[in-house]
Amino acid sequence: MTFGQRLHDVIGARGPLCAGIDPHPSLLTQWGLDDTIDGLRRFAGLAAEVLGAEAGIVKPQSAFFERHGSAGIAVLEEVIATCREAGALVLLDVKRGDIGSTSQAYADAYLDPRSPLAVDAITVSPYLGFGSLEPFLTTAAAHDAGLFVLALTSNPEGPQFQRAVTEEGAGVGATVLREVAARNADATPLGSVGVVVGATVQPSTQRLGEDFAINGPILAPGVGAQGATFDDVRRVFGASARHVLPASSREILQAGPDATALRDAVRRAADAAGELTR
User: Where are the transmembrane segments (predicted)?
Assistant: First the structure.
């Protein structure tokens, strides 16, 4: 079963919310935990248990695990296993992007089921050229996994590159969207290659040419603590909002460490996100 099919099914069952697990030091402190491997394990373990049972898609941020070294990666492996066993799809936020054999090694690490870090999908960067993603695209297809390609991110530095115009006269972000749409052509019920477009992006005076009709999922970070609302999702994506996975992390996680409060927070977010598909 392709990632696009699995995603379509889990959205139908649990809704489109993508719940993040970001063990930021400030959140560990807020939970009354130390910024240590023990604190990380307690934080991430509870978050995975609750979010994995409630959200359709869970998105661990790899960097916050990597900063604890090999022990942190071991915790990440536990989080992945817990979420998948609970029925959630795991989208690992790693934003990898390289060329040749290095790209292939990254792809094998995260997308090959034989790897202890194997997940359902990962985020990737196309800014060494979209063709540099070929090892990721080929490996994802071989293992029925998914990719989310950075297109129009919401960080203030993003437009310097993403809204620049190519020699063909198209915006770089729009070019990424077109490339992804081509990869998803004829896929049913949903393509397995998605894009990342921030829910806080502002309209551009340039003609980007995107209507987000990529026949694939759109990961939209920024809902909640970063200031975006579900109304913003409708404003930015229009008719394609039904294919958006609104991502929220801190807004949910700050409800911990009480498991009941955390569960209530993710359920409220999931209910609000579900309105986008109706």
Answer: none
Average pLDDT over residues 159-167: 88
Determine what percent of the chain is predicted with pLDDT higher than 90. 78
DSSP letter at 244 equals: E
How many CA atoms within 13 Å lie on the side-chain side of 222?
Answer: 24
Identify whether the C-beta of residue 250 lies closer than 8 Å to the C-beta of residue 224.
Answer: yes
CA–CA gap between residue 26 and residue 44 (Å, rounded): 14
Lookup: tokens for 127: 């800014």
Which position among 95, 178, 250, 268 bears the catalytic label?
95
59 is catalytic: no
- Residue 68's SS3 state is coil
- The per-residue pLDDT for range 202-215, each reduced to its tens digit, is 655 444 445 788 99
Q: Supply angle C-alpha 190, 228, 87, rounded to 5.
A: 45
Q: pTM of the predicted model, to two decimals?
A: 0.95
Q: Provide the pLDDT for residue 200.
A: 78
CB atoms within 10 A of CB 153: 21
Looking at residue 201, the DSSP 8-state letter turns out to be P
Closest CA to 10 of 81, 86, 61: 86
Nearest one of 144, 142, 166, 162 to 153, comparing CA atoms: 162
Q: Which backbone phi and psi does 110 adopt, to 5 degrees?
A: -110, -20
Question: Is the four-CA dihedral 20, 21, 27, 31 of positive or negative sign?
Answer: positive
